[in-house]
Amino acid sequence: MGIETDYVRERVSEAVTKSSSGQNGGRELTFTEKRQLKEDEKVLYTDIHCHVIWGVDDGGETREETEKMLREAAADGIGRIICTPHVTPGVYEFPEETFERHFEYAREYIAREGLGISLYRGAEILYTDHVPRFLREKRVATLAGSSCALIEFSPTDTREHIFDAIQKVSGAGAIPVIAHMERYPAIGKIEQVRELKSRFRALVQINARTLLRKQPLLRRGFMDRLFREGLVDFVATDTHCMPGRETCMTQGMKALEEKYGAEAARRIAEMPEKVLEGMGK
Ligand SMILES: [Fe+2]
Description:
Blueprint: H1 3-21, H2 31-36, E1 45-50, H3 63-75, E2 78-83, E3 86-87, H4 96-113, E4 118-121, E5 124-126, H5 131-136, E6 148-152, H6 159-171, E7 175-178, H7 190-200, E8 203-207, H8 217-228, E9 234-236, H9 249-260, H10 262-276
Parallel strand pairs: 1-2, 2-4, 3-5, 5-6, 6-7, 7-8, 8-9
Helix pairs in contact: 1-3, 3-4, 9-10
Residues 49, 51, 124, 238 line the site of fe (ii) ion.
């Protein structure tokens, strides 16, 4: 019996027991509790940003680390993962063959252990001047073959650089998904996010862990507005095999629901399904 099944069973029976015995005050189950009750479908959350494949970036060095991260993802209620190793087009060559081999191994491991996770290919693309050309020539992975490209920047990049980059990614025919949007002070104003979304169809991804950590006052206000105004499109784990960067999707989504309501949680949990359906194609 896979570890995730034990976890889900426990949570489900806890929720059902509470609900039927009235221990929850007869209240309706929350969105996140209901999500967990979808046990049969084995699709709980989809993680669109995760460094689960070993030996290709700073995600993990050994096969055992990938195995551990996959078991933990299953236990965290994740049913689908888009693997997004760091790539730096035109600057560092990505070890494509190694990734392919390790990716296939990860799929076999999931099947063998009955973890119930589907894996998809993707990349977290550090923006370089080469990125638009790589996207046009289809030399860099988008999210699960959709038109969405997960783009990251350096936290010290300027507003001008980020706007110019997003415009060029969009001009190359991709939908830019800004990876961990909370990390870039240069575009840390609501008006800037609105502009990026309206002019370039940019989408916003926030790390689940950010929802669990106490943020500095300014960033807290910014994050609050992002969520309350429906400007966040994805919450993902950005899991690396290192302390403090473990998976925490269920906890993050619970915190999101408590703070911003079931509708926001539902919209964000379901958004990756559009990507898997080939968004923008
Ligand atoms: Fe990442």
